[in-house]
Amino acid sequence: MLKSSYRLTNFLAASATYTILTVFALIMLFPFAFMMATSLKEPKDTFRYPPKLLPRSAITTQVEGFDEPLPLYYVDYEGQRRQFVLVQDNIKIGVFADPNNPDVTYERALNEVRPTGGFMNQQTVTFEGQEQDLFDVDVDGQTVPMIQTGQTALGRFADPENPEATVLQNVRLSEPVEELTAHPENYAAVIDLQSMDRALFNTTLVTLLVVSGQLATSVLGGYAFARLRFPGRDQLFLVYLGTLMIPFAVLIMPLYQLMVWIGWVDNLASLIIPWIFTAYGTFLMRQFFLGVPKEIEEAALIDGASRFQILWRIFLPASTPALATLGTFTFLYAWNSFFWPLVVINTGNTENHVLTLALNVLRGRASDSPNLILAGAAIAILPPLIVFILGQRFFVESVASSGVKG
User: How remote is the C-alpha of 216 from its chain's centroid?
Assistant: First the structure.
């Protein structure tokens, strides 16, 4: 009995845990799903109310007598829900009522009613203390003088198979006949609008060179600080590690002045060379290399292997998790970097723009097309997302095994 109760308790606890985690996962994924769905919508579909997540397009049909296909809407006709086409929009409709029975109203097109007594001698009536014009309104074949109590605009809907069957209905409140669709051409429009292909190439080039440079310098620096003995090694490492505490805001002005002096302002070199050295990467690789048994290195030295051969054939194959972690972090930073490119690359120099700068300009140029803005955001987000998914196994393994040995 106790064993069954224990199993039931564990099952309920696990179910509650997974339910909560699933709910929070869906909440975290919703903005990404909304971005991807909106990037495939038409501009007018992004402004619909109430909003819908999946992209939809109105269904149209060709009707005899009309050159262009007409949109279909759901209407109530003779007690049935039917699909009618909109043949005429913005028909001025007046709301009329008998002064003796104002609670009963009738909707008639304004061109279907005439002033009582004619246009020159229109009759009036006093209603609720005000003088009101009278209009002749046809009610069941009889002409009844009425006052106009309101006005609206309706659309005329017709049966595609029988255009004589028509219904007047509010277009804005009518439900269109739609189908799920997608517009991948939004991505091509973004690329044509903002030269996103050039920005994507620049971002890829900068990211790959920065990642390669940081991996190379971090591996060499980490191995030197972990395995080579030289005077002042530990003190130099502490000074180098202390640079992590310097805020980037403090470095902007001197770094920019250095780029001006070298002549790298408005040049992709300013986005690459200053960032191939990293104290964090050196620290990460040093901590990982310290965990490699010294006996392996000593045996390789006895066999006549050089330091570079030991690093290449022993340490690098064993440090795949650390390299994947550093590569992932560096890729995300280099790909998403915005402030430094904004400072050092001129806004008008589109040839040297990276994705973050291109998106910043796109935000203004396509402010009336959220679907294009989110298509550009998707182009910028998908590559680092794929890299993180592919490298997460090594990332988790590295977090669990590195950075704890000294």
Answer: 34
Determine the Cα–Cα distance for residues 191 and 375; give it in Å rounded to an integer. 10
Tokens matching residue 54: 């999946």
Output the pTM of the full model: 0.71
The amino acid sitting at 201 is F
Q: What angle do CA 229, 232, 233 make, to 5 degrees?
A: 45
Q: How far apart, in whole angstroms, are the C-alpha atoms of residue 311 and residue 305? A: 10
Beta strands in 50-208 (DSSP E): 56-58, 60-61, 70-77, 80-98, 101-109, 114-115, 124-127, 130-139, 142-159, 162-169, 175-176, 178-180
| Cβ atoms within 10 Å of 209's Cβ, excluding its own | 18
CA of residue 199 relative to chain centroid, distance: 18
Q: What is the C-alpha separation between 106 and 368, in angstroms, rounded? A: 40
Q: Pick the closest to residue 227 from 167, 140, 286 (CA basis).
A: 286
What confidence score (pLDDT) does residue 9 get?
Answer: 82
Residues 179 and 59: beta-carbon distance below 8 Å: yes
- Contact assessment for residue 342 and residue 357, using Cβ atoms and an 8 Å cutoff: yes
What is the pLDDT at residue 205? 94
Residue 404 pLDDT: 46
Find out whether 160 and 175 touch, Cβ atoms under 8 Å.
Answer: no
**Inter-axis angle of helices 320-336 and 196-227, nearest 10:** 140
* Residues lower than pLDDT 70 in the chain: 1-3, 194, 394-406
Q: How far apart are CA 124 and CA 117, in angstroms?
A: 9
Give the residues across from 101 on adjacent strands.
98
Q: Say what the pLDDT of residue 365 is.
A: 77
Q: What is the DSSP letter of 42?
A: -
Count Cα atoms within 13 angstroms, Cβ side, for 36.
6
For the chain, the 3-state helix, strand and coil shares in percent, each to the nearest 5, are 55, 20, 25
